[in-house]
Amino acid sequence: MNITDTPSPNFGPRRDGLKPELVVVHYTAMETSQAALQRLCAPEHEVSAHYLITRSGAIHRMVAEDQRAWHAGAGAWGGRGDVNSRSIGIELTNRGVEPFAARQMDSLEALLAGILGRWDIPARGVIGHACMAPGRKADPGPRFDWQRLARKGLAVWPEVGVGGQGASADSAALAEGFAEAAATFGYPRSSDTLDAFRQRFRPWARGRVLDEWDVALARALAARHPASSA
Fold it and tell me: Is residue 95 within 8 Å of 101, Cβ to Cβ?
């Protein structure tokens, strides 16, 4: 795996002795990798990430992993803020409306395997920007293949058998069940959490009405991958 160093001045020390326990996946929402690199390395923009992966699979390292890059912004995961100090950020060149290139995903898998091993991060610690900032961010978007990463042990996916959704319930019970389970998995309690959750785990779902499958998937994740044990 070849990595090109493209240093960004936009970083600082991790606060309070924190070390990476999360990896946050982003899309650049820009047309080209060069445009994204220019922005991520420009001091006036005050934004950066540890890595950028181009559509062709080339990897650029902008910030050393032991430093605090400025990629996550406001948000939380597992009830804890300052995600920048607790994470490594990976940008993928993608506008957010097209599939992610095969060579790009190959490079992401290789990079993730190394990061998780170096920092002893469990697969449940690989999240999207939208996961920790629902409503404010949408990346890496519904076209990102989370199941592919899960099959390689580089992310998680809910396992719910036939009938696993359980008995139907009224809307209030469904809402509380989903909110509790999603928060146990790591999501912030927000009116936008369902959209972020479905974008990752049910991108084919239509409408905004919570149903039993949303609750079943969230409970499956909470049972097997609670953020509190990360």
Answer: no
Kind and range of the H or E run holding 217: helix 212-224
Quick one: average pLDDT of 168-174? 78
Contacts 24+ apart (CB under 8 A), 156-162: 156/123, 156/124, 156/126, 156/221, 156/224, 156/225, 157/201, 158/201, 158/216, 158/217, 158/218, 158/220, 158/221, 159/220, 159/224, 160/213, 160/216, 160/217, 160/220
Lowest mean pLDDT among 86-100, 153-167, 199-213: 153-167
Tell me the domains of the chain and their CATH numbers.
3-151 (3.40.80.10), 171-229 (no CATH)
The answer to whether the predicted template modeling score (pTM) of the entire model surpasses 0.90 is: yes
